[in-house]
User: Fold DUF2007 domain-containing protein from Candidatus Sphingobacterium stercoripullorum.
Amino acid sequence: MEKNWKKIKEYNKNFQAELSKHLLEENNIPAVILNKQDSSYLFGKIELYVSDEDEESARAILNKQEDLTDED
Assistant:
């Protein structure tokens, strides 16, 4: 991973990472997914990264989304 990128979240399922990435991109925050899962047994993590300058905003967006999801 290049410098100036921060890991902001880890997932077990690819679709969760993709949904978060899409949410961030809708809010003009570029995001990158790094899949570290074993392809055969699917153990390991999927990591979501954003640039240093977008870290705070990205965390706020994802936390707000989690809060809304938890209320349902």
